[in-house]
Amino acid sequence: MVEQRRPHLVVFTGAGISAESGIQTFRASDGLWADHPIEEVATPEGWRRDPERVLRFYDQRRDQVRWARPNAAHKALASLEKRGFAVSIITQNIDDLHERAGSRRVLHLHGEILKARSTVDARMHYPLPRGGIRLGDLCDKGSQLRPDVVWFGESVPHFMEACETVARADLLLVVGTSLVVMPAAGLLEHTPLDAPCVLVDPEARTLAPPGTAGLEQPAGKGVPALVRHWKREGRLWLPETLLDEA
Questions:
Q1: Would you say 88 is a known binding-site residue?
Q2: Domain boundaries in the chain?
Q3: Catalytic site residue from 74, 110, 125, 158
Q4: Is 155 annotated in some ligand binding site?
Q5: pLDDT of residue 243
Q6: pTM higher than 0.85 for the full model?
Q7: For 23, 24, 79, 147, which has the most beta carbons within 10 A of its beta carbon?
Q8: Smallest Cα–Cα separation from 17: which of 66, 60, 69, 67?
Q9: What spatial distance separates the first Cα and last Cα of the chain, rounded to whole Å?
């Protein structure tokens, strides 16, 4: 007897889903970059000029992540996985809120703030269960540790893996992202032709690309609403009534 394939939901999340847990976004007027120019704290050049400033900036962000808690959207996605759906999460976020909510398959495109990595070997990662990184903290090869994040101007190491995951989707759910950060925004181009795509965002009607359904709600409201429909039906589909009301 051939086992029926489980519905595969691929979720692509951005800063909007974490903002509802109290983590500041990059692009808001009061966001992370308001007092920290990007070129000074999030580029290889800034790191070479003033590594101590960069480390202080990421220590502050790390503390913010540790205080944050998963919200209703994170929890809803984890509950769908427990119900038997195959759920793959691709996130632009560097926090661990998806994992803390219970999701098991999470791919971080831009790295993980609660890890350090070697400056000479990007494969060498070190968890940071507490504290931060200081000048003089070295990897096993004797090189200074840096935040395990992808800075502007650096390649996205897991991008091809993310494309392959999207290509196996039965439905693509995009949550809380403006879809302007490349190359991540190009993931939608790899969605199978017969796989629906829905964007959950307060500005979904403006941001949704052609062919993408929009649910104009914050993540903490829109994602749980969709998950309730999918659990009840046991399949992935776009509830037209819900989308029309958004």
A1: no
A2: 1-23+70-110+156-245, 24-67+111-149
A3: 110
A4: no
A5: 65
A6: yes
A7: 147
A8: 69
A9: 42
